[in-house]
Amino acid sequence: MEKLLKTVASTINSHESEIEKNIKSCGSCLSFYKQSINKIDNTIIAMFRDHKTRFLMVFSNREDGIIADFSGEQIGDSGTITRKCPLDEHNAKVLRKLFPWTAPISLRDRKTTIGCGDRLGLATAGHIAAAKQFEVTPVLAQQSIRELELTGRTYRQVVDDATFMVFQTGYKEGYGADGDHLKTIEDIDVALAADMLMITLDLSEVMNADAGDWAQCEIDNAYAKLPGTVKERIEASYADKSFSFGESSIDFDAATARRCAVMYLGALDFADEVHKHLVSKRGNKFDLEISIDETTSPTLPSHHLFIAKELLYRDVEFTSLAPRFIGEFQKAVDYIGDPEEFDHQFKVHADIARGNGDYKVSIHSGSDKFMVYPTIGKMTNMRLHLKTAGTSWVEAVTVIAEHDPVLYRVMHKCALDNFDKMLALYHITADITKIPNIDTLCDEELPGLMAISEARQLLHITYGPILNDKTIRPLFFEAMHKLEEKYIERLKAHFEKHLNLLGMPRKKDK
């Protein structure tokens, strides 16, 4: 440490590149993230790590300058003021003020976005390593209320973790922050207060999804209770109408128009209320995604069209919309269903989006759906949002299986013990009896479990109990700190596979 401080003291007036070279060669026991060095007004701010944790180091030749904004322990006596600063809420706020590129932004003007769920606060460097090579903008901070409850985190922590890793990697191209699957204005306000500028509005609890299976007489009775002016508008706008866009066309009969009205009008009125609330809070600095995917039945193209047109009628500014697609989009595994039928129906969904405001089609539970990525990329012309979440956690589990088999075995058994409980929260159809008994496997065979769909889904949905186990948690994070570079490498390769199969263009300078 003493040699480091003396080196910085002698070069604090130099250019950033010269400071980087000298720090790298100073022989310190600390590791330095070379892309994190930044200099403002003779103050150097950079990210370091030791064998236990990561932290900021701030060096200055004056006590009352920028260094005074950071909280932390003042160390050394080399003629330069040095402060070792924890990665906490206060210091994240200071970073965002000094370096606005470390704060999330609205991505409504970005054509292609990918949600990179990070349940650990450790995955962002790997996500950036992949995303920066492609014409795509990552949503680096993304969590649902359910995920926060299971991991014991807050929206503020999720954004702060992304802030520090964006600074660590020197990524200046902009990123998003998504309050995922929010259902109430109260929860939306919590996300907004933490700078989550993307709001995924889950309409599952305010739309009348059950009416999709009602007999027509039940639909007609419910429809008759709507205000007369509403019925007149619905009938004039949809009944016995035909709509064409691109190569697709949809015919509405009066019965379909009435069914859509009964199913969706209440939810769309709520979407309008949420939109007005977002405008009052953020002006136009937000991204609203409409989610209708949390249903048991696929979204019919006619219903998708109705929802899109009704949102436009209400002047709701939405960036993306997530239908429930045909087939199964289960967690951590490839698409389950007929790929030809998916291709046929997805094209209509993409044409609807393009012909009704040109919003992004959003694919939820979108990770690992390698079979249908070429279709998704081609038919949307890359105007899409791909949402991933648990796949980055599964990659972390794989790293543990590869390098710490003793810990993996403990995690695996914890997952088995909690599997039935977690099925109440996640819909999967994995038959875990197909997973080999790990007591019969040698250490070298453990990583291969993550190539088995049933094992991937087992570990995917049981992250909460594993991370909340008081014995496992400290061992897990200690191991992940030690294996940081391995994790980054795995995530980079994993997300490159996603983006390549989508047909995502690479940046020309890469």
What would you say this structure looks like, in words?
The chain has 510 residues and is of the alpha/beta class. The chain folds into 3 domains: 85 residues, no CATH class; 291 residues, TIM Barrel (Alpha-Beta Barrel); 102 residues, no CATH class. It contains 19 helices and 16 strands. The protein has an 8-stranded parallel β-barrel, surrounded by 7 helices. Strands 1, 2, 3, 4, 5 and 6 form a 6-stranded antiparallel sheet that branches. Strands 11-12 form a two-stranded antiparallel sheet. The mean pLDDT is 95.
Short characterization:
This protein has 510 residues and is an alpha/beta fold.
Radius of gyration: 25 Å
Q: Any low-confidence stretches, pLDDT <50, length ≥5?
A: none
Might you state the CATH topology name of the largest domain?
Answer: TIM Barrel
Characterize the quaternary organization of these chains. Answer: single chain
